[in-house]
């Protein structure tokens, strides 16, 4: 084997600017110059040391949806995964002992900022291996950028090329990662839907005990409620076993009839399944052991679930036919066109397969078979290696499962918990609308969980301001008025939001959603600590002001003192553990006149309020939405509407779809 080519090229809009930070793309090719075939472990595109030490930070991107993703100090690590969970949560071929970041990574600290990311993911489960040197005198970190070849054979004279690696030095990490995600999306033809799903999912109330009647009852309760959502998704529990997706469990008689009942209630029917994850006692595993990924003639362990679990060999031609038949049944015969595909990592587990391909190629082959079978049906990936899924999924779960509790002591950072979901949603926001639509997982707003009111509200704010999928997963009939109101205030979804302090800490604390119509913003300042603490939002840090520096702020999640919701200037108060100070901000106009400050929508109607204008005593507001929205307008001095009293400093107005005009007098 010999190194035949290293291609390096400058990239980015500033590539010709000598003063701009350097960004280059590097591709390495290898050729087998011997007379016999060889098997390759990997192409190491980079393998060296960096000047970053223990107190510096690394952005570590998780292997799959549930794997923790965050910025840590180089001398910090996530808790070790339990052996039973390792096949699910980690790349089993990655080295143990150091840090592994998948697809991309970033280093920051005293030496500066360095961001690296592979730009194509159809052939390799790319990774970055980071190892902090134990010698304090050296104070550096080794870094390898790896394209694993998983032992595939290279014939004499054949060559293999790495994925392009982008190296971006000096720029802010958030900007560099955003550019890498844009490049990946362009190269891999990302599917980004025009709108994200909203609706209800059966999982977090019924779990596997769900029945068809439960689904019908909740669809009817949604209709009685009148909340503006699109989807009713049936989760795990309808099938007899993982692998036997077309054999129905007790409580389900006909999926086609159930699908029609959901559609007749006015909702898009959705269905969950885990096509590559196989129960050991399923009919599929019993009848077709040759369809499984193996090692030493035994099925590989795919991680715990219902007893032993195995992985489908997606390169086997009979498996390809089975996948096609299964999904044609689900889409063409049963009629489902929204599909949540779970435990997808199983197709990428190490092991022996029918075809001599990399694990990424095997994974992509399985997903491509699904996509070909379902056409333009909406596909949500979950438990999935993210970047290798680009172009084949419409949405991607970006964190672990939520749960009816904040955390469970002793669990790893990949396990179901509200805290674990929050971590990844914050740290994978740069993927949203570049690679897919982000799915933060379901809101739980009922009072009968272990979640506090502050925790329910903070997750609602996070979902509302980041703009991903927005599903509810409580028994609808058990949600009280406060829970319903909280969920309603997160609808409809906005386009996007940004994490302001991304790459500074494990749990970023500021999320901002901007309204272009009048340069207003919604700012969520979170207290992720386990103790109450004072939190402050200064609107002038987020909105432009005139020479007076004046701004207005409205608390969207106020304390019990409702009269203190409108502020002129900074907002500061004590926030409960895991809670949120949510403030809608706008610059104060030079003239004293009514000004739109906030909305009932937690994200300040950022994508729905598309026009705001003031002229001759009339406030005009244009709403691009299907339902009315409540606005809050500051009325300084003697300005009032015909409905407001002289004591009102804040007018509450209802806007309907289209252009609305409100006359004020003084």
Protein model, in words:
By secondary structure, this protein is α+β, with helices and mostly antiparallel strands. The chain is built from eleven helices and 40 strands. The strands form ten sheets. Strands 1, 2, 4, 5, 7, 8, 11 and 12 form an eight-stranded antiparallel sheet that branches. It comes from Halobellus rarus.
Name the features.
666 residues; eight-stranded antiparallel beta sheet; globular; Glycoside hydrolase family 36 protein; Alpha-glycosidase_related; Aldolase_TIM
Task: Give a brief description.
The chain is of the alpha+beta class and 666 residues long. It has eleven helices and 40 strands.
Radius of gyration: 26 Å
- Output mean pLDDT: 95
Cα shape = globular
Which percent bin holds the helix content? Answer: 10-25%
Please identify the oligomeric state: single chain
Topology of helices and strands:
Layout: E1 2-10, E2 23-31, E3 38-50, E4 57-60, E5 70-73, H1 86-89, E6 99-102, E7 104-109, E8 112-118, E9 127-132, E10 141-154, E11 159-161, E12 165-169, H2 173-187, E13 198-201, H3 203-206, H4 212-225, E14 231-234, E15 239-241, E16 244-248, H5 255-264, E17 268-273, E18 277-279, H6 283-287, E19 294-295, E20 298-299, E21 309-311, H7 317-333, E22 338-341, H8 359-374, E23 378-381, E24 395-397, H9 418-427, E25 437-439, H10 453-466, E26 470-472, H11 481-488, E27 498-499, E28 510-515, E29 520-527, E30 533-537, E31 551-555, E32 566-567, E33 571-575, E34 579-587, E35 595-599, E36 609-615, E37 618-623, E38 629-634, E39 650-655, E40 658-663
Parallel strand pairs: 13-14, 13-26, 14-17, 17-22, 22-23, 23-24, 24-25
Antiparallel strand pairs: 1-2, 2-11, 2-12, 3-10, 4-5, 4-7, 6-9, 7-8, 8-12, 9-10, 15-16, 18-21, 19-20, 27-28, 28-29, 29-34, 30-33, 31-32, 31-34, 35-38, 36-37, 37-40, 38-39
Helix pairs in contact: 7-8
């Amino acid at each position: 084997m010999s190194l035949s080519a290293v291609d390096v090229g400058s990239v980015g809009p500033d590539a010709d600017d000598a003063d701009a930070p350097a960004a280059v793309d590097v591709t390495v090719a290898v050729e087998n110059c011997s007379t016999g075939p060889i098997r390759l472990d990997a192409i190491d595109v980079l393998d060296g040391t960096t000047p970053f030490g223990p107190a510096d930070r690394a952005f570590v991107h998780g292997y799959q949806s549930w794997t923790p993703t965050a910025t840590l100090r180089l001398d910090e690590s996530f808790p070790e995964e339990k052996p039973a969970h390792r096949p699910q949560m980690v790349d089993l071929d990655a080295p143990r002992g150091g840090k592994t970041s998948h697809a991309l990574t970033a280093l920051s600290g005293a030496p500066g900022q360095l961001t690296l990311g592979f730009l194509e993911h159809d052939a390799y489960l790319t990774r970055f291996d980071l190892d902090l040197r134990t010698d304090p005198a050296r104070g550096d970190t080794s870094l390898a950028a790896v394209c694993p070849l998983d032992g595939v054979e290279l014939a004499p004279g054949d060559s293999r090329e790495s994925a392009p690696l982008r190296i971006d030095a000096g720029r802010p990490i958030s900007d560099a990662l955003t550019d890498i995600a844009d490049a990946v999306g362009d190269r891999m033809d990302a599917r980004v839907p025009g709108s994200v799903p909203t609706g209800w999912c059966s999982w977090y109330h019924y779990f596997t005990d769900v029945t068809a009647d439960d689904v019908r009852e909740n669809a009817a309760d949604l209709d009685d409620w009148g909340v503006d959502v699109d989807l009713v998704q049936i989760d795990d529990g309808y099938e007899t076993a993982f692998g036997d997706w077309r054999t129905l469990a007790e409580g389900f008689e006909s999926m086609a009839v159930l699908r029609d009942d959901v559609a007749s209630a006015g909702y898009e029917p959705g269905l969950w399944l885990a096509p590559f994850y196989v129960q050991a006692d399923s009919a599929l595993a019993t009848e077709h052991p040759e369809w499984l990924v193996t090692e030493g003639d035994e099925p590989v362990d795919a991680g715990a679930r219902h007893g032993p679990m195995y992985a489908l060999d997606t390169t086997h031609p009979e498996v390809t036919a089975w996948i096609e038949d299964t999904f044609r049944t689900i889409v063409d015969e049963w009629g489902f066109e929204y599909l949540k595909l779970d435990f997808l990592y199983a197709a990428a587990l190490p092991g022996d397969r029918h075809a001599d391909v990399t694990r990424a190629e095997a994974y992509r082959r399985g997903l491509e078979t699904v996509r070909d079978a379902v056409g333009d049906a909406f596909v949500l990936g979950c438990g999935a290696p993210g970047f290798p899924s680009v172009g084949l999924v419409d949405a991607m779960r970006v964190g672990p499962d939520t749960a009816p509790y904040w955390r469970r002591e002793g669990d790893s950072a990949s396990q179901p918990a509200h805290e674990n979901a929050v971590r990844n949603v914050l740290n994978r926001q740069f993927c949203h609308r570049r690679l897919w639509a982000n799915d933060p997982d379901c809101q739980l707003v009922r009072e009968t969980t272990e979640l506090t009111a502050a925790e329910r509200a903070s997750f609602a704010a996070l979902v509302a301001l980041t703009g991903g999928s927005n599903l509810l997963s409580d028994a609808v009939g058990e949600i009280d008025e406060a829970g319903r109101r909280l969920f309603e205030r997160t609808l409809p979804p906005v386009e996007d939001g940004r994490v302001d302090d991304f790459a500074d800490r494990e749990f970023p604390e500021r999320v901002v959603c901007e309204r272009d119509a009048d340069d207003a913003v919604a700012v969520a300042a979170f207290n992720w600590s386990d103790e109450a603490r004072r939190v402050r939002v200064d609107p002038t840090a987020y909105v432009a002001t005139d020479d007076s520096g004046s701004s207005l702020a409205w608390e969207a999640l106020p304390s019990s003192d409702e009269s203190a919701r409108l502020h002129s200037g900074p907002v500061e108060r004590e926030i409960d553990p895991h809670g949120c100070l949510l403030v809608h901000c706008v610059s104060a106009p030079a003239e004293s006149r009514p000004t739109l400050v906030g909305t009932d929508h937690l994200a300040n109607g950022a994508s729905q309020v598309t026009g705001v204008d003031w002229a001759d005593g009339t406030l005009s507001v244009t709403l691009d939405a299907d339902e009315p929205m409540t606005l809050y307008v500051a009325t300084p001095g003697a300005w009032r509407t015909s409905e407001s009293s002289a004591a009102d400093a804040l007018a509450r107005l209802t806007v309907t779809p289209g252009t609305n005009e409100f006359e004020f007098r003084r």
